[in-house]
Amino acid sequence: MAEAMPWKETCCMEERFRFVQEFGGEVEPSLASVCRRYGVSRKTGYKWLRRYAAGGLAALESLPPIPQKPAGRLALELEDLIAALRCEHASWGPKKLRQLLVSRWPGRLPAESTVGLVLKRRGLIRPRRRRVSVRRGAGGPLSCEAPNELWCTDFKGHFQLGDGCRCHPFTLTDGYSRYLLRCRGLPDEKGDGVRRELEQAFGEFGMPDRLRSDNGAPFGAQAPGGLSRNAIWLIQLGITPEFITPGHPEENGRQERFHRTLKDATAKPPRDTMMEQQRAFDHFGREYNDDRPHEALGQVPPKQRYEPSGRIYTGRLREPEYQDAEVRRTNVKGVVSFKGKAFSVGRLLANQPVALREIGNGVHEVRYGSHCLGYLLERDKQPRLRPERPVPAPANVEAEGGCSVGATEQLGAQPIVAASDEEVVGA
User: Fold this and answer.
1) Is the pLDDT of residue 391 over 60?
2) N or C: less crowded end of the chain, CB within 10 Å?
3) Backbone angles phi, psi at 220, to 5 degrees
4) Angle at Cα 67 formed by Cα 64 and Cα 73, nearest 5°?
5) Which parts of 271-347 are beta strand (E)?
6) Domain chopping of the chain, boundaries
7) Cα–Cα distance between 262 and 214 in angstroms, integer?
8) pLDDT higher than 80, residue 401
9) Is 254 helix (H, G, I), strand (E, B) or coil?
10) Which residues, including other chains, have CB under 8 Å from residue 109's CB and lie 6 or more apart?
């Protein structure tokens, strides 16, 4: 039996040197063929040829995988200077502060990102509030066939009175008869004041079927479904809040047109005090409802076309009732458990019943009362409400690469994140 030959020992540096010698021999081969024999890419081959040409055999040694010394931290004096400049210019960001350092720091300037890190480390940057993607209104054209079927509400733009105070006129009209139900000058646009005015209107005229508004506070909110405290209160009274499509004020055009008439009659010029301004609103309201002919009503005043609602306001709140849907009750944090998974509908809906109705292929519509909060996909590992309705795909459709496709993911919207109580403006 023949004696086995011992293994030939070699090292990386020897292999690299042999690579360089072979490529630079008398019979000059192609770089690609030499790289194939040594099992390296052409990029690596060029690297070792450059190193050998620049530094000889010693340059073929492997370099350490990490820098010889760590990157130096900014000098404490420079960090103090950045913090001081930020205190002098509280609204300036890293770009402007770095430009200001040019004349105040003789050494090398840090990058803008480094200036930002210094500000963050020193607690001089307030974290940016996370934008919440919510389902917005899609009210469409205004539609009503009888008094109290639809009321319209909004704030007319605020203006300054003679004494320096600001007046925020809150208006409420009947969509069918244009009857002015409420016109009150308020000191702000917070939800508490709006609820008081609505309660007084409900007590005097009864309750409507629907109430149309824009999506802003205090009617809508940065919360699932865009529901504010006032909107939830309306649903519990049996009134459907109706939000116009964002950026389409013409969907509440009767209210917008009324505001122009109100401004011309009562705010040109503004009165000296809130009390005087309210007297002007009250005088205008009586004339507008009782005497002023309205062209859209056949030149008769709104009073001749309006009658109070038969739905008497008692102040009693009721939880929504559902049919043909799976009902789940939220916990104290507004979290819903469904098929072994949990998702949030917001703290404003804590301890409330929500309905889930499958609309196709594992896609569920989530509702509170008659209001859609968003859509839920069963196949999501971490369920979340989506503001836009996904289009279910056939269950057995094969996608490219042989992967089966369920409900489409091309929603073009970020997940809804439950807003805290503080995030609900005007709630």
Assistant:
1) yes
2) N
3) -110, 175
4) 165
5) 326-329, 335-338, 341-344
6) 12-60, 76-121, 150-305, 326-420
7) 19
8) no
9) helix
10) 98, 101, 102
- The CATH class given to the 150-305 domain equals alpha beta
CA distance 369 to 254: 27
Check whether 402 has a pLDDT greater than 50: no
**Cα→Cα distances 259→21, 175, 242, 273, 288, Å:** 89, 14, 20, 20, 12
Per-residue confidence (pLDDT) for residue 341, from 0 to 100 = 84
Domains 76-121 and 150-305 share a fold: no
Mean pLDDT of the chain: 83
Rounded Cα distance between 308 and 159, Å, is 32
Q: Is the pLDDT of residue 417 over 60?
A: no
Distance CA 202, CA 182 (A): 10
pTM over 0.70: no
Confidence of residue 63 (pLDDT cuts 50, 70, 90): confident
Both tokens of 265, joined, read 């009659």
Can you state the angle between helices 94-101 and 112-121, rounded to 10 degrees? 110
At residue 362, φ and ψ (nearest 5 deg) are 80, 10
* CA nearest neighbour of 251 among 150, 130, 389: 150
CA–CA distance, 172 with 419 (Å, rounded to integer): 28
Question: What separation in angstroms does the CA of 277 have from each of 115, 256, 265, 299?
Answer: 51, 20, 11, 28
Architecture per CATH, 76-121: Orthogonal Bundle (1.10)
Q: Which residues contact 383 (CB under 8 A, 6 or more apart)?
A: 338, 341, 342, 343, 376, 377
Phi first, then psi, for residue 281 (nearest 5°) are: -60, -45
